[in-house]
Amino acid sequence: MSAPASPRSAVHDTHPDFPHETAHLKGTVDAMLRQIDFWEDRDRQMGADLETSIILADEAGEHAAMLSPHVHHPYFGSLKVRVGGREQTLYIGKHGFRDVKGPHSVVGWDSEVGSLFYSDALGWTPRRGGQGTIKRRRQLDIAAKTLHRVTDLYDDEAGGDTGGREEVLLRRLEEGSTAGMRDVVETLQPEQNAAMRHPAGTPVIIQGAAGSGKTTIGFHRLAWMTNAERGPHQAQAGACMVLMPNRVLATYAARILPELGIGPVNVTTPESWAVGLLGLEKLEVTDRTLTLLLTDHDNTRRALAWRRAKLLGDARMLDVVRTHLWNRFNAALRGQSLREEVALNRREPQVFALTDTDLHAILRDVFAADPLSGYRAGFRRAVEALALSHLNVPDDEEAGVLRQLSAPITALLGRVFASTTPVTEARRLLGSPEALAASGLLTEREIALLGTDPLSGIPTPRRAHADATELPLMLAVQAFTGGIGRQDGRTLEPFDHVVLDEAQDYSPLLYALLGRATRPGHLTALGDLNQGMHGYKGPSSWEAVQAVLPGAEVLTLGRTYRSTRQITELGARIAATYNRAAQVQGVDRDGAEVQRYVAPADAPHGELPLIARAVKDAQAAGHVNIAIVTRRAVDADRLAETLRDFDTDAQPITTQEHRFRGGLVVLPVSLAKGLEFSAAIVSSANVQTYDESTEYERRLLYVSASRALHWLALVSAGELHPLIA
Ligand SMILES: Nc1ncnc2c1ncn2[C@@H]1O[C@H](COP(=O)(O)OP(=O)(O)OP(=O)(O)O)[C@@H](O)[C@H]1O
């Protein structure tokens, strides 16, 4: 197959409206440039006084900077609509633009009206009332201020649906991959559009097979959420967070942010977020359950480790932790008191005193209020409020009084809360059957299960560490004592919106905690229960997640877009061995046959010459971004080294610190998940590497074989894996 040519490289001018659309484009570009000139002309941004003039000029400068990148490509589609007997054509672009003096306005893709371009609906009720009808939907391929092609997607006068939407989609899917995730604003499909615009303020779980565009849609939903049309639900990009499974993928995905105009969104991993919140940046996060499941052949121990990990992530653990902390703090308060003489202006010094009964009452109120910023801060605020009211402090003396009380209150808080750090307290809870029983939520068998240690045979790192399965418990302690959310200066605020990628790997307990950390209803989860690599950490079903996210709906994306028919079919064969879900429907895009390179098992250099040849073949087919996928990181390092002897220079990506910058890379399957390449080469694609009887290994084989958009090669010294032979 030759390299997929860019659809925008040539002008296709056969459409009868091409000249008219070319003229409209020129008019729009000119109108935008005029507007930018106007904004940039500081002399014309005059207010009543100097200060207002400066503010006006700064605002105008910002508008100009936002519009400038869009002049080369002002819009990508149009809608002909009829409202109240009047026909009108609306142009849809990535950035809204109002042409105050002429007919060249552009409607933003993320507006309510913009949605009509993507949906299949033919009528709608405009905000001003009446009835609107869609007469035509039209795609306009524009680059560098030049119109390249006009494609009608729907035309009332030409019999309705033209099949153009599929045509435009296929053209886009044939493009080569890039070094970052791309936006799909121009070719968003109706079901994706509906998922993306699920009502703001309600949580949503988007379930979809590999390549259905879940991750892409999650980022688009964030961009949509930042539009002012979302009203009270509007989100600020800087107050949003996306959690992705590893940092290589997070950096790859974050490249989509500027295109969507949401640059300040924080894209990170659950581990980084968690250790940051715990204030333990040096803490190493292990996953010893996974190690045990992969290396231990004792089925009883494996089952025990699985069940214990599941229980640690059970949503009930939130209340187990809360009850435990209630008991701990009450015990710590026993015998405590506060007594402090406070100097006041124009009055005799007063004594502020709290007995241990008073302190217990305060604790009860704080637990009942359950503040987002945590019980420690809540306790402090409650004591301060009592002091001010007991002592009748006038407003202008409040700060002074609180300053005097600060040290004694801090000392009291230290005596009550200091001994409960998240790491020690989570472990203390797990080590105490009485503490586990206190809430009455766990059965005796469950308490006994938590008391076992099936992982004792798995080594632990030398430095401070926490296992991925205990981390949610530690976060729960942190959430209750120190608070959970987004640090905004010195205060803790809820996130405006949180997006979770690979959401099938988050435990219900983590969901409950993330639900606390964000504004109510502002959580979007993207996942595929069938792709779960870490079932012991994740929910057994989406219902378990819905139970902790009130009002959450599950939406399903049924189509997959990433790969050619040949690659999709091969992947489906592997997935069918562990996934009983209905067949997914791929886009019918034909590509090169899957290439197979097999050498005898005892070939002198093993599979190395074959991998080198596969790379040359992929490059000869015009592909630039090519991945050689290995089973393990050590294999990738070794391969990068040895392939040099075969005139092949592949960049290794073997740690989370590495970045994918395009070109030829070699990386382990664990870091390849979520990334995609024009061509992929699966090395050691055999049963010695991917054990046929282990479901986890078959899932890994699936991930390896589903990274390519256009061209896939399977390489082995010795027989290929029977699932792909
Ligand atoms: N509407 C669309 N138009 C063009 N390309 C699309 C569209 N939807 C998805 N794609 C492309 O399909 C590929 C897969 O998208 P994405 O990675 O978001 O899927 P995913 O469901 O998150 O996959 P996975 O489960 O494997 O992580 C990407 O190349 C994306 O650009």
Automatic annotation (TrEMBL):
Q: For binding ATP, which residues are annotated in this chain's numbering?
A: G208, A209, A210, G211, S212, G213, K214, T215
Which keywords fit this entry according to its UniProt record? Answer: ATP-binding, Helicase, Hydrolase, Nucleotide-binding
Q: Where is the UvrD-like helicase ATP-binding domain?
A: 187-564
Which portions of the sequence form the region Disordered? 1-21
Concerning InterPro entries, the annotation shows: DNA_helicase_UvrD/REP, P-loop_NTPase, UvrD-like_ATP-bd, UvrD-like_helicase_C
User: Which residues lie in Basic and acidic residues bias regions?
Assistant: 10-21
Listed PANTHER family: DNA HELICASE IV, UVRD / RECB / PCRA DNA HELICASE FAMILY MEMBER
Indicate what this protein is called per its UniProt record: UvrD-like helicase ATP-binding domain-containing protein
Per the UniProt record, the source organism is Deinococcus aerolatus
